[in-house]
Amino acid sequence: MTPLKRIGVAADHSGYALKERIAERLKEAGYEVVHFGDGQSSPEDDYPDFIAPLARAVANGQVDRGVALCGSGVGACITANKVPGVRACLISDSFSAHQGVEDDDLNVICLGGLVIGDALAWELVNTFVNARFIGGEQHKRRLSKIAALENISLTDKTIIDSSSADEEKMREPHNLTVSEAVEVWRNEGDPN
Q1: CATH number for the domain harbouring residue 116
Q2: Nearest to 83 by CA among 99, 101, 62, 100
Q3: Could you say which of 19, 48, 68, 156 has the lowest number of CB atoms within 10 Å?
């Protein structure tokens, strides 16, 4: 497997200081670090302005993986996941940092610059960049379902039939409300 070389980093003012420290540690570890902003700590900035370009670069293969920061990490995660092909998650433990890559092909790690310390942040980023996707059949099947969701418009009522053994089978468009869909899920149980 080809080793990762280029890691993108992005943060707003709340994640700026931690982003700078992580970027320095990544450089020391031999990675090429690509900055997507903010280039300074400016209280007027907005995290989508920096996280979205990072996410597009990950999706387009311009960087191998991304590290996205804002105050809590939540806004960075929401923004990154709006870009098709990005699988971002707010991570706060080492198990999720490697398991997210191994099973779910996580390609953007999100951290909260105001809620996580330097040592833990580096441990999580280091674990994330050193993990590799296992590529098991069940993992590929789940990722194909996620990719299908990226192509569903907000008005399309098609849902993935999680109870079917056929991974590609989709239900016909229907008129379930959210509460009805939740009830179906409760009655059928968690398919995982």
Answers
A1: 3.40.1400.10
A2: 62
A3: 156
